[in-house]
Design a protein that fits this description.
The radius of gyration is 19 Å and the shape is globular. The protein has two domains: 18-97, no CATH class; 102-285, Hypothetical protein af1432, CATH 1.10.3210. 68% of the residues lie in helices and 0% in strands. By secondary structure, it is an all-alpha fold. It binds fe (ii) ion (2 copies). Residues 144-145, 185-186, 209-210 line the site of one fe (ii) ion. One fe (ii) ion binds at residues 144-145, 185-186, 209-210.
């Protein structure tokens, strides 16, 4: 099967998760210049579960506000349109995909833990170097590997073969894919992001997170996601270990030199944030 046929097959899958209506609406509003804070508030308020979740998020240590925020309009004013929009997107995406089943060795919860780790690390990098909006970095980090979920649910046989190769041949997921499939999870995730009409910058960051392409619409965001993924993977098991950053693209190493030199100083703090973000996003209601 070549790449084209593969993606066509993907196109033909009718039960591929569709984006929750609220995300479509909130996404659309961003392209609409007349969007008001009030309008965003109104849309969110139609979904009581979302209201509860967003208020819990904005009042968590994640955003670090001291005074209690009790309603959505207030949250939008304090945190800004983009932050709230991205919070809605994050909460919805995790919810959309949380019913999926895992396999031996591949647990959906572990998948989300990794995604959240990359999201939080990306947000931190964006915050520190001011190269891109921290909230946009968070969402791109959260979605960077969603192609893996698509593979595991809709191309299960291929996924199992890749997984076997990962464990037996000691390859990375990406290397095993290269050997066994015409497309990789990054391309599949990017394909889905495009289909869902996410911003081009996000689609590009998902598509090229393993293979930097300098001509993308937002190179800084891509470099951040690429680097955060490697940092998160390196620190996964042992914080004491000296991380191996040889996989980081030279361009990313140049642009993010300041953060990379000091990573062992700041990562423990980020690791705490990752833990509380996991607690928040993955806790059953
Ligand atoms: Fe990946
Ligand atoms: Fe990843």
């Amino acid at each position: 099967m070549d790449a084209q046929t593969f993606l066509k097959k993907l196109d033909g899958i009718s039960d591929i998760p569709t984006l929750p209506n609220i995300v479509i609406q909130v996404n659309k509003m961003l392209q609409d210049y007349d969007t008001s804070i009030k309008k965003l508030g109104t849309i969110i308020e139609k979904d009581q579960a979302m209201v509860t979740k967003i208020l819990r998020l904005v009042n968590s240590t994640f955003y670090g506000f001291r005074s209690k925020i009790t309603n959505i309009p207030h949250a939008v004013i304090v945190l800004g349109f983009n932050t709230i929009r991205n919070a809605v997107v994050s909460v919805s995406i995790i919810k959309t995909f949380s019913g999926e089943k895992g396999f031996e060795g591949f647990e959906i919860t572990d998948f989300w833990k990794h995604s959240i780790a990359v999201a939080v690390t990306s947000r931190y990098l964006g915050e520190q170097n001011r190269l891109d909006s921290p909230d946009d970095c968070f969402v791109a980090g959260l979605l960077h590997d969603m192609g893996k979920l698509v593979l595991s649910q809709y191309f299960t046989e291929s996924f199992i073969r890749i997984w076997r190769s990962v464990t037996e041949d000691k390859l990375s997921f990406y290397e095993a894919e290269k050997k066994l499939l015409p497309v990789n999870h990054a391309q599949i995730g990017g394909y889905l992001a495009k289909k869902w009409q996410f911003p081009v910058s996000l689609t590009d960051s998902v598509t090229y997170h393993h293979q930097i392409r300098k001509t993308v619409s937002n190179l800084n965001q891509l470099l951040i996601i690429h680097t955060a993924n490697i940092i998160a993977n390196n620190y996964k098991s042992d914080l004491e270990m000296r991380p191996d950053f040889s996989m980081i693209d030279p361009e990313a190493r140049k642009v993010l030199a300041g953060q990379l030199e000091t990573v062992s100083d700041w990562f423990p703090k980020v690791a705490d944030e990752i833990e509380s973000a996991c607690e928040f996003f993955l806790k059953e209601e």
